[in-house]
C-alpha cells in the first residue's frame, strides 16, 4: 500500500536565537504553535476520509503541536517515540553556538559519523535510531493495513531527525561518513516535507 509521510518540524521554541538546545525540553511559542497547527491542518485536507497516524518525539514542543492539531483534526491516532528526539548535544545544550570552541566544532565535522559532540550522541547514533523508528513504523503499518484504508502518517519531530530520515530515504544508506553527505536543509519551524512510501 501507498502512504503519504509528513515530516513536520515543531513550531519555534521559547529560546533565544543562536542557542544549541537539542533535547532540552523547551515549550513552543504559543502563537507560533497555533499557526503551525492551523497551516498543517489546512494542508492535510481534513475533509478527506483519510485517517492520521501521528508520531511525536515526546518532547514538549512536539506534543504541543500534536495537541493543537487535534483541535483542527479530531480523533488523531497519537503515539510518542523517543527515537524521534533531536540529537542530544550533551555539554553544549543551552550554550550559544558562537561560544562553543571552534576546535570542538572541527572535531565533530572531521569525524562526523562517530564523534559525540557534547559527549552524548553521534550523528550515526541519531541516524541509527531514526531508521529503527521508521522500520518499526513500516512493520506496524503492514500489521494494521486494510485494502480500503486511507491513512496518512505524520511525524512531528525535529530538524536533525528530518535530515536523518531524508538522507536514508534518498540514499538507502544506514551509515554516514562525511559531513558533506548530510542534508544541508531542513524545514523551517512549523513547516514540513512530504514523502510517498510503499508498505
TrEMBL record:
Keyword set for this entry? Answer: Hydrolase
Q: Which Pfam families match?
A: His_Phos_1
The domain of life is Bacteria
The record's annotation in CDD domains points to: HP_PGM_like
* Gene3D superfamilies per the UniProt record, alphabetical: Phosphoglycerate mutase-like (3.40.50.1240)
The protein depicted here goes by the name: Histidine phosphatase family protein
- Biological source species: Undibacterium flavidum
